[in-house]
Amino acid sequence: MRFDRADPLAAVLLRSPLGALVRGVARIRTSVQHKLLVAFLLVTLLFIVMGAFSVQTIRRMSQHTDWLDEAHRRVDLSHQLQHSLAMQMHLTGMALLVRNEMALSSVLRENNRFNDTLARIEQQAPDAERQIIQKIRTAQEEAMTVVADIANLVRDGKIDAATELQLTREDPLYRSIDDLVRVVAQHEDERMASLRASIQSANRRSIVVMGAFAVVSVVLALVGGFVISWAFILPVRAADAFLSDVAAGKFAGVVEVPNRDEFGALATRLNETARELARLDAEQRLTADTLRALNLKLEQASQAKSAFLANMSHELRTPLNAILGFTEMILDDLYGDVPAELKEPLADIQTNGKHLLRLINDVLDLSKIEAGRMELSLGDYAAEDIVGTVRASLRSIADDKGVELVTEVEPNLPDAYGDAKRLTQCLLNLVGNALKFTHHGRVTVGVELQGGQLRYRVSDTGIGIPADKLDEVFAEFRQVDATTTRNFGGTGLGLSITKKFVEMHGGRIWVESELGKGSIFYFTIPLRVELAATA
Ligand code: ADP
């Protein structure tokens, strides 16, 4: 796949069982929205479970603290018990020394405190300890009886007997109680130590379990994120690669994705589009081939036509020139006097012959241009001379029609470089047309230099050209309407030949006209024609 280089880790992971999981998720037949929802819910669930576990751990820890507090309290109580017992022994001794009631009642108060503390220890004490406590209580009661006897002896002033009783009965009793109390205190100390140890190990266990749980949660979240994201990234990348191929004109590819969600539907649509594009492409190629073949045929036909016209025109010109020459000689009386009634038909032959020659010349020029055989013969010329030649050629026609022929040449024009003969022909066509389509008024021929270009201008006050025909007049065999031809004669070739010659010089031709008011034809030619422009 293409992303092997861009994303090597993902590529490795996708080849592992994780890849199978990604494809499995992609294959699930449900919408992308539902898949994302389930993924987010799973992650949320993980958080909830982790939160619950933390709360549970905190609760257990606070319970442990309570237990420890309780154990402390019991240890304290057991120590108080020892202390209270010591006090009792001490106070009894004091009573013998000071021999008064107050000291005796202090022993009794201490006894009450001892009993009270013992009762508190007995609550929640294990059975073994209860038995010891029971023994303490019995011994203590006995000790109290002895204390009462000692008190009576003291009150009776029998101090020796009291001392004797204290040494023989009370002291051994207190020592045995002390032993028992010590056992209880030792039990409580041990219980606290073992509780502390078990709490410590429980805490250690909790930390380990929590750590493991956190690690598992993070791994699960990462795996889930990887699986769900790649289940969507893979089809997007496949579509991207496919569309790059399509953009490069390769329609044969297919998008293959395991997804059964919106991405699957998208892949199906893309494949259908590719098939349709491939079909259209094949169709278009076929059409292009057919068009190419047709174009070739058309080109060949056009060349054959041009070649035929060129040959034919040439063949036609020779006999026609002979006809015109002989007619001229007959009209010039070289073959003797021509009867008056023959003069008019002979003049008609001459006029029509000349028209036919012009037509043949035009066809010959056009076919030469189309066959690519027309070449300009470039040289220095003066634009003024061209205008002068055109004026001299057409002045008689203008005079015959009563139309004024005016020339406007910019003074001191520099020498130009181009094909003077062809440019003269162009200007003759334009001025000839202007005279042809003008009944009265004037025809003006002008030339001026404009930014390195010679601009020729032929304006007339004739019939004008409708706006929608302005572009057509330069096309071959085009005339504004058929009646024009009938009224004015012409072939419809003059302007198209003019346009071609102008363009061969690297120039441009255009017309401005208003129907009924007249027309102005312009063409521009570089002052000095470059050879490349004529190619
Ligand atoms: P044609 O031999 O018919 O004059 P052209 O190619 O020279 O052929 O002219 C094409 C047509 O353009 C003419 O038939 C005419 O309808 C129109 N046209 C050309 N020059 C003028 C003009 N000066 N005034 C009006 N119409 C013109």
- What is the count of β-strands? 7
Order of helices and strands: HHHHHHHHHEHEEHEEHHEE
**Coarse structural class:** alpha+beta
User: Residue share in helices?
Assistant: over 70%
Largest sheet: 5 strands, mixed
Side-by-side strand order of the widest sheet: 2-4-5-7-6
Count the DSSP helices: 13
* Rg value: 65 Å
Catalogue the ligands.
adenosine-5'-diphosphate
Rounded to the nearest angstrom, the distance between the terminal CA atoms is 54 Å
Mean pLDDT: 89
- SS strand fraction: 5-15%
Oligomer: single chain
Q: Please state the overall shape, judged from the principal axes of the Cα atoms.
A: rod-shaped
Low-pLDDT segments, ≥5 res: none
Task: List strands and helices in order, with pairings.
Layout lengths: L2 H4 L1 H8 L1 H11 L4 H67 L2 H22 L4 H29 L3 H89 L14 H70 L8 H31 L8 E3 L1 H19 L2 E6 L6 E3 L1 H17 L5 E9 L2 E8 L21 H7 L5 H11 L3 E7 L3 E9 L9
Parallel strand pairs: 2-4
Antiparallel strand pairs: 1-3, 4-5, 5-7, 6-7
Helix pairs in contact: 3-7, 4-5, 4-7, 5-6, 6-7, 7-8, 8-9, 9-13, 10-11, 11-13
The protein binds adenosine-5'-diphosphate.
